[in-house]
Amino acid sequence: MKREHKLKIMAFLLSVTLWYFVVWGKPVERTFEVPIQVKGALNQQYIWEINPSTVTLKLTANRNDLRKLNKQSIQIDLNLSNYPPGIHQVRIPIEKLNLPENVKIKEVTPYYVSLVIRKVSIKKIPVKVIFKEGPPSSNFKIIINPGSVNIKGFWDDLQAIEFVQTEEVDFFELKKLRVLNVKVLRPDKVLEVQPEQVKIIYLSR
């Protein structure tokens, strides 16, 4: 009986060991969403855009190795200093991924991303005050300080813009206070307006 009992225990241990190697040693797959990290600073006159900005990696390894894998250690770096202004199709540099030796890449989606680098232009244009309601008479004068602002964006988008508007101004409040600081509205496709506020001064004729 003792011998049979020992044999049963040994058989059980052997089956557990085999199960462990089959389950934990068998390669499995796992998918990771990895953001593209940008390196190599561009001149402030340029703006870049990457589409898509993340890459899907399908990795294969045994369960234990994948469980130990730190997602934060998986990085895809793109050096912008290697590319001139324009539109580029850039291959994902999977050979530079810092992965453990026993973790393999099965699939990369997408394999190429679109990189757009465009030059930013600056245009100086006048500011136009917008009143909530039309002034009751024209017997007044206003001074806008500064009277013009700089808008920043891509030149193709800036060419047609002749002026910028303020947020709506209450004429009677302006007449009462004499001076108001108001926000300048940023037109569509304009990246930046400087300064963002102007001072409106009310003067009686």
UniProtKB/TrEMBL annotation:
What InterPro entries does its record include? c-di-AMP_regulator, YbbR
Gene3D superfamilies associated with the record: 2.170.120.30, YbbR-like domain
Which Pfam families has this protein been placed in?
YbbR
Transmembrane regions: none
Q: What is this protein called?
A: YbbR-like domain-containing protein
